[in-house]
Amino acid sequence: MAVIAKIEVQKRNKSRYNVFFTKGQSFEYALSVDEDLLIKHRLTKGLEIDEKTLIQLIDEDEKKKAYHLAINYLSYRMRSVKEMKQYLEKKEKEPKHINAVIDELLQQGLLNDEEFAQAYIRSKQLTLMKGPLKLKQELVQKGVSDAVIDAALATFTEGEQKEKIVTWLEKQQSKKNSKVSSKAFKEKLSSQLITKGYSQRVIVEALQLVDFPEESSEEWEAICFQGEKIRRKLEGKYTGWEYEQRFKQQLYRKGFPMDVIEQYLSEGDK
After folding, report:
1. What positions does the domain RecX second three-helical occupy (predicted)?
2. pLDDT (mean) for 155-172
3. Label partner for 129 (CA 20 to 30 A): which of 59, 118, 161, 179?
């Protein structure tokens, strides 16, 4: 049986208290506890504490520490249940304390995967050019279930997706390289949008809503540049009909329409 000799507030954390036990004519540090536990167990100077109560105090205080860590982690942004579990595991908290804290946070509404998924999607819609497939992938990694993700993504309609894509495509037009064909440029943009998480069907429909000015001078400049590269590659290896067919095939693969290719072969490749 131990007797509390002194209780004093910590200097750096006014909500925690150091508890000292009597040891002969002096006293020694025993443990620190949260203010809530101090009140709950009515810890005062002169109180006798047996070993069982001491173990219980230490255990409850460890859970309280885990809870405060969780609250601090939530102060920066919302978290998924999986994120919280992984964070507390990194802090080397006991599994029973982690589970208890998560249950408490769920009951308090401070953890909620449905609200987390909705907020995450809204945030990315406003700040980043991410499509539903990419958002789903990221939410799965954060431990959110497919059903919860799909319900949250239902608010990100195809109409909104197309609007975002059209706005983005219009901004990209100024970045077109005069050395590539218009078709190749559109294919490049389409690939980027797929990487960002948009479906092929939505991308195709959005592309049809954008007016891409195809200036003949830029297209001609591009085919002249690409044609010269191909000419150097094929020259000396092929002649006659085979040379012409291979030339056409490679220009076509680079996105140039056949009428422009024929014009180039008759005017440009001389």
Report:
1. 112-153
2. 92
3. 179
